[in-house]
Amino acid sequence: MVEESETLRHARPRGPRSGWFPLGIAVAAIAILVGGWAAVNTVLPDTTPVESGHSMVIATGSGHQAKLSFDDGWELHPGSSSAGQQYQFSNGPVRLRVTVVTPPERSSETALWEGMREVVRVGDSSASLTDPRPVTAESGAQGLTGTLHSNEGIGTAALFPSPNGGFAVESLAVGEDSGGDLADADKLLQSIRFDRTEGGA
Amino acid sequence: MSHARPGPEIPSRKDAHVPPPRDSGQGREGVERLPAPHEDPSRHRRLPRLVTSVVFGLLCLAGFAIMVNGLLGAVLVFFGESVLSALVLAVVGVIGFWLLRRIRPVRPPSTTFSLLALLWGMTAAVGLALIANGNLMTIWNTLGGLPFGEAWGAALSAPVNEELIKVAGVVLIAVMAPRVLRGPMDGFVIGALVGLGFQLVEDFTYTMNVIPMVGGLDGPATVFQTLLLRVGLTGLGSHWAMSAVAGTAVGLMVAASWRPGRRHGTRAALLLLAAMGVHWFFDSPILGGVTGTVLKSLLVFLVAVIVYFVVRHTYRSRVRRALAEEGEELGMRRSAAMALADRRGRGRELRHVANPERPAVARRQERLVDFAEDRASEYRVPFRE
């Protein structure tokens, strides 16, 4: 054992490194991870065009899937989107956020709207929703819609529960001016449809 | 009966140092002596420590600001739920902090640096990882499409970003406090504490993120279910375990004075890769479902436990041998000296001493253990079997 300890000492003839070495490594690693990926992102496109006429599955669950059909001009923001959970789209000045929620069982549309009133305040404390009014999509899906007011402007909000209530699709659309350019977003949401999946109830 | 007591054979010294060793006839006395335990660092060592402390503080502040910016809105809207979550996690944190400090053999690590490790995990690591993960997830979503990003994005982002940023905190602590992190055992415990801090804030973030995902309804039940899953079901094999394994790698590097040979370098690299590997497996879509998640969590725990017992066994052996060596030099019985290697042994030895003498004996025990840990962690003990 004496020999072993001496071997260990002699294995480091150059002596210990100063604290600058590990400090430099740690700071460099953090800088690369925090700044490096951001730098890579600058050379990648911020958005991905959504093909006109494309029908996108945005949620699947409880034997149903929800689809949206897109017209010209829509783009998907991959960085702010997550498959099956949240999508960020834009079309010119219009920004549309679509969120898939899985509410507790037997939640009514009204309860979902009240929950949505709270959730919109998370991102913007000045945001508020008006009382909802019923809306029917082109496919016949029933939902609620209302107006979104915030310091940033006016928008529209909508929610469509899946037929058996297993999940719901919520959306918030905001534009640049007083809300007049939101027709494209309203039209997109009107295209929502809930199809049964194989083996679904 | 303890021989670690004030007595004629071990005269006390005002400078609180253990007396120099007796001549053993081997001619080695003085050659292997270590610096006094609390020797002031020289100026060329102080500057990197000072700079590291500033960097550590700034990164913790940055991470905290990032987390506040990301969570404040949810906390204000779902205030009751956030308080509930914070309270439950505070209890988990206190228990975890106590347990992880307790698992260090011989003595618990420094309270101050244990708290700083926790702080790094709760602020800098989690905040900076949030930025890094967000950017890397965007890359996967853009290059591979959303379904690919959803399935593999976490597995291809978190192990790299989170493990490296967490372990960077262990490195910074090793530079700031070389006496706190002197080898693999310290690296394991400090790494585990960093991971615990990270896990606590990540769990809090999850509870706040899940509420909108259930439509903002039934918040308290959602918080409770989320915590049950993340603490009760997968908490055993979570960030604390991964970071403990990665922290052990830092401990190996420290023990080699940041200049490891091939053997130590390979071991350190394998440990870091093991931490990242089990993290990758945990986040991957392989073995999905509740059962799969629990199995993956158990695997992470198992890896940490194996590393712990290997490191613990080695460390305890070295400390016991160092104590035997110190004891022999001081004229203590070998068994009594080696008994000081654990808390129970020290307590047992103290109970054999009259009450008025106990504080002095306890101080002497501390000094002996100080020296033994110095010797053990620096491989300088001319061990004898």
What is the compact description of this entry?
The complex is a heterodimer of chains A (201) and B (385). Chain A has helices at 2-10, 20-43, 109-123, 183-190, and strands at residues 48-49, 55-61, 64-69, 75-76, 86-91, 94-101, 128-129, 133-136, 142-150, 153-161, 168-174, 193-196.
Describe this structure in words.
The complex is a heterodimer of chains A (201) and B (385). Chain A is α+β, with helices and mostly antiparallel strands. Chain A is built from 4 helices and 12 strands, in the order H-H-E-E-E-E-E-E-H-E-E-E-E-E-H-E. In chain A, the strands form 2 sheets. In chain A, strands 1, 4, 5, 6, 7, 8, 9, 10 and 11 form a 9-stranded antiparallel β-sheet that branches. In chain A, strands 2-3-12 form a 3-stranded antiparallel β-sheet, covered by helices on one side. In chain A, a hairpin with a 2-residue loop joins strand 9 (142-150) and strand 10 (153-161). Chain B has 385 residues and is mainly α. Chain B folds into 2 domains: 45-316, no CATH class; 319-377, no CATH class. Chain B contains 12 helices and no strands. In chain B, helix 1 (43-77) crosses helix 4 (146-176), helix 3 packs across helix 5 and helix 5 packs antiparallel against helix 6 (219-233). Chains A and B meet through helix 1, helix 2 and helix 3 of A and helix 1, helix 3, helix 4 and helix 5 of B.
